[in-house]
Structures are given as C-alpha cells and as structure tokens.
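#onboarding

Welcome to the new folks! Below is a worked example of what a typical request in this channel looks like: someone posts a single protein sequence, and someone else replies with the predicted structure as tokens. Don't worry about understanding the tokens yet, we'll cover that in week two.

Example request:
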Amino acid sequence: MFLENLVVGPLECNCIIFGCKKTEEAVVIDPGDEATRIVNCLNQSGLHLKYILQTHAHVDHISAAKDLQEATQTEVLLHRDDLLLLDSLQMQAFMFGLEIKPPPKINRFLKEDDIIAVGAYEMRVIHSPGHSPGSVAFYMCFVNGDEKHILFAGDTIFYRGIGRYDLPGGSYEQLMTSIRDKLFVLPDDTIVYPGHGPMTTIEEEKQYNLY
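Example response:
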C-alpha cells in the first residue's frame, strides 16, 4: 500500500495519493492545487494514475483536477449532485480571491455504494451530503496481517469539528444525518483522513467532537 497526504493550496486541502504497490495503480483524491507537485509524487513513486476522485466540487478541492486530468489522461469522478457547484467554480474562486482554470470534464458520476478498485484494494463510496449536496467519502476495509479501516472523509467531518454548512447547497440537518447514520456506524478504529487538518478516528470523534 502507498498512501501520501499532500497539503496543497492556500486553503491547505489534504490531497490524498493512494496506490497499490503490487499493480502500481493509484488514485488521487481531491487535487485542490499544485498539479505539478502531485504528478511529481506519482512519478517518484512509480505509480500510474487510474482515477481522480472528488469528495465534492468546492474550489479548494478541485482546482488542480483539470491540469492533472490533462497531464495524465485520467478520468475524473464526482457525484452528480455537485454539478451546480462545479458550474459555479469561477464564482467560488472569486469569493475566496483565487484564480482558477475552467473545471475538468467529469467522466463518471459517483453514487452510493459504488466500488472503486485500486489494484488489490477497494474503496466504497458513501454519499454524505450536508457540506455540499454531492459530498462523498471513500471507505476502505482490508486485511493485511491485521484488519484495517480507512475513511477519506472530505469536508464532512474534521478532527473535533465538522464541515461548513452555510455555503450554497449546504445543510446542517443533512450534515448531522450523514455523520450520525453513515460515518459513526463505521468501526471505531477507522482512521479518518479529513479534507483539512490532522487525521482522527471514528472513536475519537464520537467521544470528543462537540458538534
């Protein structure tokens, strides 16, 4: 297994590179900026990119997707419910004082319980609306000596925090339902990689997240 967390862009998005060393297949989750740095990391690791996976279509998570798509000739996957956000990418960038190229071409739409194969590994798509209508998380459970659970959560939940719900398309009620009914049902020892900030676990957030 290869797992690298690159903190990219002025809003410090966690961009994940996950790969299978045996097959040299990889996915990039949320290329928010610094496409050249992401490509260099892939090349140095000897991995070839299979998919670009988007947890949602906010500007700080998708800004480098078009450049990465063009550099690697790779498909971009996004939930259909975030298309309105994708179409408003230029407006989002203006709100945060950022510059951005046109959005990437979406090659496939993600949906609940889709399975994304990455070499010998599989990720299950969890639709977790609230931060945005089409927010998703990617969950992995695999056995490699010991059972291990990993969640790439996007901006649904953070270390002792939650995603914003006051942006267009956000909903506090949906966010709480997603966290309670879809994330907190995962095993307590699930390692959570949020869209920003440090790692946490499901158990940690159940006990100490004030929200």
